[in-house]
Amino acid sequence: MTPVETSLLLDRPDESPAAPAETKQGEDAPSERTSGVRDVFRIARFRLLLGARTMSVLGNGLAPVAIAFAVLDLRDSGVALGLVLGVRALVTLPGLLLGGVLADRMSRSKLMVITDLIAGICQIVTAILFFSGHAAIWNVALLQGINGFAAAVFLPTSSAVIPQVVPSSHLQAGNAILGFSIKGSMMLGALLGGALYALVGPGWTLTVDAATFLISAAISMRLRTPRVRNVKDSSMASLREGWKAFWARDWLWSVVIQFTVVNAAFMGTMEVLGPLIAKHSLHGASSWALVLAANSIGLLGGGIISLRLRTRRPLRTGTFATFLLALPMLALVSTLNMPLLMLAAFGAGVGAAVFVVLWDTTMQSHIPNDLLARASAFDAFGSFGAVPIAMALYGVLSRVVGIDRLLWISAVLIIVAGAAVLLVRDVRELPLSPHAAQNLTDHIASPQEVMHDEF
After folding, report:
1. Which of 1, 81, 394, 455 has its CA at a distance of 20 to 30 angstroms from the CA of residue 431?
2. For the chain, which residues score pLDDT lower than 70?
3. What is d(CA 279, CA 289) in angstroms, rounded to the nearest whole number?
4. What CA–CA distance (Å, rounded) separates 255 from 260?
5. Largest CA distance in the chain
6. Which pLDDT score, from 0 to 100, does residue 324 have?
7. Cα–Cα distance measured from residue 439 to residue 310, given in angstroms and rounded to the nearest whole number
8. At what angle do helices 314-322 and 403-421 cross, to 10 degrees?
9. What secondary structure letter does DSSP report for 229?
10. Nearest CA to 55 among 225, 203, 189, 204?
11. Closest CA to 172 of 317, 345, 7
């Protein structure tokens, strides 16, 4: 029996929890028996992780508004916008796999520092190009491609670092707190992005964006997480081991296939069609920033719900929440009324946040810690694999089939993908791990505050 087969045997649902968080002697991590949001905040390294990710996401909230409308100002074309966003999305695919391998072979906090520094430098150079008047589609696409590669390496790394910081009995609370803060930063970032772009243009907006990445890197330097394991095999062997762990779990690869479709439709709408509609039929960057801010408020609300959510079947509950992601398409195709658009974006945010917390908790509870980064990498690789194609095609298809018809197609794809994945037995029936279930029971303050699973 190979090492990976052994780990898979030991990691069957309800038989073995994820590895507990690694702590140093004297560190202020709570014991497995304690629970609650306050206990998670007592962990010094969790507070550092929270600060680093919050600052990084604040910058990521600024960037979409600045880049989208800067490209449209350079060339008023959905094709040009799709090209820039498509290049960025395309390079994320190898970055995700590299991040999964590196994060299981070196200190995850050091890798977070490196990727934040690269992202910050890219945004500084992009800002200089706009300040100097030398910005063009090709150099903006190149720099945002490098930025996207760094972000892709960061993604599985930042996800896999959580079990090193938070005990397994606190994973859902830790994920919900991180999600709550991150979604609040996304909301603030979107609002700041629209306001800064309208007041001072893309150059200063991207300068602020760069500063947030550099601050995040400075905070991550203090995190100092150890390597997960000693490296004895090649990168390709590590990838093969991660692939076996990924493919052995029906619930994992089936949900990833679902999100191959969902992310392509959602990102194509929100990143390409939305800015196009806002520029020509609303009030430009400021209007779309309000829609994105409403989405972030929904993410914030979903994070609050996730803190009090009690469900025996997390993937089933999370999948039902994904149907809300079709709301922005239905709103854009039927009305250009801003309050209704913002309400639809809010609903999509709630659904996304609830799903993400339940999904992250499921992965961290059912996958061994030394395989988690690589499993997360394959998750992200598959989930975002079609996004580059969608980014490139949505600008073209908006001319060929029309924006309204493309919005209808996107909504239908999201709904059908969610219904299809519910046919998979493990998605409907996979239970919480014992530690995660105990955490859900212990940290709930009163029955009145509980959202019960009715599915």
Report:
1. 1
2. 1-36, 78, 183, 228-235, 335, 433-455
3. 12
4. 9
5. 63
6. 96
7. 10
8. 170
9. S
10. 189
11. 317
